[in-house]
Amino acid sequence: MRRSRARCGQRFPSGCLSTTIGYGTAIIIDWMIDLPSELEKQFTEQLSQYEEEKQMPYVTSVERLAREQGREQGLLEGIEAVLRTRFGTRAELILAEVRKLSNAEILRQVLHAAQTVERPEDLAMLWSGTGEGENGARA
């Protein structure tokens, strides 16, 4: 839903977050209204300031999921870089298996082990028997 700049400016006057509309309403508004970029920046700054003052950061389930996926992606990229640097094309077979993993703790272990393992195939010991990466699907 798109609102005009003037109307959004009326709904989000400077400092209104902590005094007028309240935190819960602000979260709902943030979720429902597509603000112009300048007002979105101002709103985000006010929301962050409010969260700091009240020591109550709000993280949606979507944000938590996105963070976890970002961590997994970063770990996968690190593993790929280490294995390709150390083993070149020999790493490709194990990388196909590594890409099926989704458990961040196992991915961290793989990243650390990738730096010292003698053969890329030896990494499979870290997830074999855990159910991770089986059947070609990521959890």
What is the secondary structure topology, with strand pairs?
Blueprint: H1 5-11, H2 16-21, H3 23-32, H4 37-54, H5 61-87, H6 92-98, H7 104-114
Helix pairs in contact: 5-7
Q: Any low-confidence stretches, pLDDT <50, length ≥5?
A: 1-20, 135-139
| Strand content range | under 5%
Average pLDDT confidence is 75
Structure summary, number of beta strands: 0
Report the C-alpha radius of gyration, rounded: 22 Å
Structural class given helices, strands, pairing? mainly alpha
Total of domains = 2
What coarse outline follows from CA principal-axis ratios? Answer: elongated
Helix coverage percent:
55-70%
**Count the helices. How many?**
7
Biggest sheet descriptor? none
Distance from first to last alpha carbon: 34 Å
Order of helices and strands: HHHHHHH
Which characteristics define this entry?
disordered N terminus, 139 residues, mainly alpha, 7 helices, disordered C terminus, 2 domains
